[in-house]
Amino acid sequence: MTSNDSNANRSQPFVDVGMDDRSRPIAERGAVMAAKRPLSPHLGSYRLPLTAILSISHRVSGVFLVAGMLVLVVCLMAGAAGSAPYARIHAFLNGVLGQAFIWAWLYALFFHLCHGVRHLVWDTGNGFSREHQNIAAYLELAISLLFSLMVFLATCFLWS
């Protein structure tokens, strides 16, 4: 086989790309492999089950709880620093943005608590069937909303 025959074969498309096909340039091997790779739809076209969404939300709520703890530390430091810094923090927390943060933080707290209780039930070896998981997911959402509503109503009646 001459070098011209080798170059002629290289310009023709190959059907099979195997581990022993090291005679082709790397770019050509990658292009052929990419053409043979199966296409998969984007993650956005899949519908995640509720339990997967709640699992992701549990992690996000944990991060949000840490952010809330940092805000609490800032509030405590402002209170220790004197009346002027405390007045600024108090004014922010009484504003719309501060109140939204507080209520979102409280809901994240209750949601994280309910999801943690769900994991404790799983630790006993119960609730692994699909029906139980879906029921527990809806219960988790309902109870966390109920706890948040109870705190909201308690603050309305106690501080109004």
Give the SSE map.
Layout: H1 3-11, H2 26-36, H3 50-81, H4 83-94, H5 96-123, H6 130-159
Helix pairs in contact: 3-4, 3-5, 5-6
Main location: membrane
Biased composition (Polar residues): 1-12
Cofactor: heme
Summarize the structure.
This protein is mainly α. Helix content is 76%, strand content 0%.
Tell me what the structure shows.
- With 160 residues, the protein is mostly helical.
- It has two domains: 3-36, no CATH class; 48-159, 3 helical TM bundles of succinate and fumarate reductases.
- The protein has six helices and no strands.
- It has helices at residues 3-11, 26-36, 50-81, 83-94, 96-123, 130-159.
- The longest helix has 32 residues, at 50-81.
- The chain is flat, with a radius of gyration of 29 Å.
- The model has no long low-confidence stretch (mean pLDDT 84).
- InterPro entries: SQR/QFR_C/D, Succ_DH_cyt_bsu_CS, Succ_DH_cytb556, SuccDH_FuR_B_TM-su.
- Residues 1-20 are annotated as: Disordered.
- Its cofactor is heme.
- Residues 1-12 have a biased composition (Polar residues).
- Part of an enzyme complex containing four subunits: a flavoprotein, an iron-sulfur protein, plus two membrane-anchoring proteins, SdhC and SdhD. The complex can form homotrimers.
